[in-house]
Every structure is written in structure tokens, then in C-alpha cells.
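Thread amino acids onto this structure.
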């Protein structure tokens, strides 16, 4: 087994998730050497750390303007991100063809927005489940209409809420879930040329859930566009929310890993940057279409992960954040 393969398999165990707790190369070498098959020099290991930290698919990332390494956040799903970039540039990909820096810039905005949505959910007592496998580079394009980027779970009573126990127990006896599931589509920029596709993908990907939510990073400044979106929402019940994050604000935000691992005061400062506006409210259905969800199991093993997480939460009577993170 090559050294790089071994490092890909073992680095995650030793890398901290928070860049502020980054581990120095010397210490990382000391820890990881015990797991490696072969006698590799410090120079060889440092070289591989450096090369891999520049690869967005590897588990190791290097601290900017400092020393040390941390665990890279999960990669952005390729299929969904490609559509997002295509939408941002109004389908004129020739405008950025060959400009990798511009593509990387667009990708960073997408990653920051997803991290912000995760943190916002955490602050507001919502539990996101990210879908990744259905949007892999080799996934069928139809998955964009079958799966949301995130499933947002609303637990109907907080842990320790004794007054809610009788109702929760009754629901359990009646076979009703103690949570609500909303399928969410995340997009950076609302625009006349793409809002219908955004909207109806959200609708299609939420048929099995109790509702669908379309979440935009940027505000909707065009009133005609806002009216068009509201009319669709009234007709089909999809909720639309904007976070008020312009391109300039997104560029000014910390890196995704810093957002996800922000301390309480930092989180408060991040939330103050948001201007969350409910353009239209979601119409939440009382039931989950379990047969439709079951039909998706053959398209992604992540459906099994979702069901296991929901089942475990229902068994213990409370919900914890999904371990997959963002």
C-alpha cells in the first residue's frame, strides 16, 4: 500500500476539526508513524503533508498564515456544485473556462454558505442531514430532482421538556414521528433565469418529506422576482428564505471549518452578519411519504444512514446532531 493511501486512511484519526487547534507537523509525524507500514523519513512525510494539503479531496488541510494541520471539512457534492456554478454564470461557462481561480472562488462561497446554514440550524434548534453520495461526480443528473442538499429535522420537543412527554408518548403509541422533515435546496443567488429550476427541483426533491425549503444566500432585491417566487410558493407550498449574504459578505466570512467550529461568541458575531428574511412560509404536511422514501434507498446508501439516525433518536426520545457534519 502506498504511503499516500495509508495517510488518507489514517490521518483523519489524528487531525483536529478546528483550525484553531491545528497540530504541528512534528507532532503529527510522531503520532502517525505508529500506524504506517514502512520506514519513512520525516522529510518524506512532511512532503506528503504539504502536497496533500493542496488537494481538496484529501483529509488534511494546512492553516493559512500559520503553522499546523487540521481535518478538512467534507467535500462539496460535485453534481450539485456544478449546477450551482452553472447557474451563477447563467450557463455561460465559457466565461470561466480555464480560470481555475474563479472556479475555486465560487466553490469557496458555496462551502461558506453551507457552513453558515449548518451553524444557523444549530443556533435555531434544527438538525441538518447532508446528502453527499447522490451528488457525486459520477451520479446521474436525475438525482438533482430526487434528493435535497440537506434534510432539515425539527424535533417537536426539547430535551428535558417534561410537559411534552405525554404528547410524545401518545404519538409514539400512534406510530407518529416526534419530528418534522423538510427537504432543503441551497442556492447562492436568486435570479430570473434560474429561480424556476431552483423552485421545482426543491418541490421534486421534497415529495417524500413533510415540506420543502429553498434557501438563498443573497437577498432578493428585485421585487418582480420576489413576487414570482411568492406566487409559486402559494401554489405549491415551498418555503423560501434568504440569508442576506451578498458576495462581498460571503468573501469576508471565515473559512468553512472556522464557521463550523466557531465558539459561542464567534457564533453570535456570525449570526449578526445574517439578515434572514422569510420570503414565503413552507406549508408543512402532517405525514411523511415513507413508501417514496423507501423507493430512494436503492439510489443512495445515505437513506439508510438517515433512517438509522432518525430511528435512534426516536428510541432515546431526543435528537443529537448527525455525525456526518457538513
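Threaded sequence (326 positions):
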Amino acid at each position: 500500500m502506498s504511503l499516500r493511501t495509508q495517510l488518507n486512511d489514517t490521518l483523519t484519526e489524528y487531525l483536529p476539526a478546528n483550525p484553531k487547534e491545528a497540530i504541528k507537523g512534528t507532532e503529527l509525524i510522531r503520532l502517525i508513524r505508529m500506524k504506517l507500514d514502512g520506514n519513512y523519513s520525516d522529510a518524506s512525510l512532511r512532503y506528503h503533508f504539504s502536497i496533500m494539503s493542496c488537494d481538496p479531496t484529501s483529509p488534511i488541510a494546512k492553516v493559512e498564515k500559520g503553522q499546523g494541520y487540521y481535518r478538512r471539512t467534507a467535500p462539496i457534492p460535485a453534481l450539485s456544485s456544478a449546477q450551482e456554478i452553472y447557474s451563477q454564470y447563467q450557463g455561460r461557462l465559457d466565461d470561466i473556462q480555464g480560470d481555475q481561480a474563479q472556479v475555486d472562488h465560487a466553490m469557496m462561497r458555496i462551502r461558506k454558505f453551507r457552513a453558515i446554514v449548518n451553524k444557523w440550524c444549530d443556533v435555531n434548534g434544527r438538525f441538518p442531514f447532508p446528502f453527499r453520495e447522490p451528488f457525486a461526480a459520477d451520479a446521474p443528473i436525475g438525482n438533482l430532482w430526487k434528493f435535497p442538499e440537506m434534510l432539515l429535522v425539527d424535533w417537536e420537543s426539547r430535551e428535558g421538556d417534561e410537559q411534552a412527554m405525554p404528547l410524545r408518548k401518545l404519538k409514539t403509541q400512534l406510530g407518529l414521528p416526534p419530528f418534522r422533515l423538510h427537504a432543503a435546496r441551497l442556492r447562492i443567488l436568486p435570479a430570473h433565469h434560474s429561480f424556476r429550476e431552483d423552485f421545482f427541483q426543491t418541490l421534486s426533491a421534497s415529495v417524500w418529506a413533510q415540506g420543502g425549503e429553498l434557501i438563498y444566500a443573497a437577498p432578493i432585491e428585485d421585487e418582480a422576482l420576489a413576487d414570482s417566487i411568492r406566487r409559486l410558493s402559494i401554489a405549491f407550498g415551498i418555503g423560501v428564505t434568504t440569508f442576506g449574504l451578498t458576495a462581498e459578505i460571503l468573501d469576508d466570512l471565515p473559512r468553512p471549518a472556522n464557521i463550523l467550529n466557531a465558539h459561542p461568541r464567534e457564533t453570535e458575531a456570525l449570526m449578526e452578519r445574517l439578515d434572514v428574511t422569510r420570503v414565503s412560509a413552507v406549508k408543512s404536511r402532517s405525514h411523511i411519504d415513507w413508501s417514496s422514501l423507501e423507493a430512494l434507498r436503492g439510489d443512495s446508501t445515505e437513506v439508510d444512514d438517515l433512517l438509522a439516525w432518525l430511528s435512534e433518536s426516536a428510541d432515546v426520545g431526543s435528537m443529537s446532531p448527525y455525525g456526518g457534519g457538513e
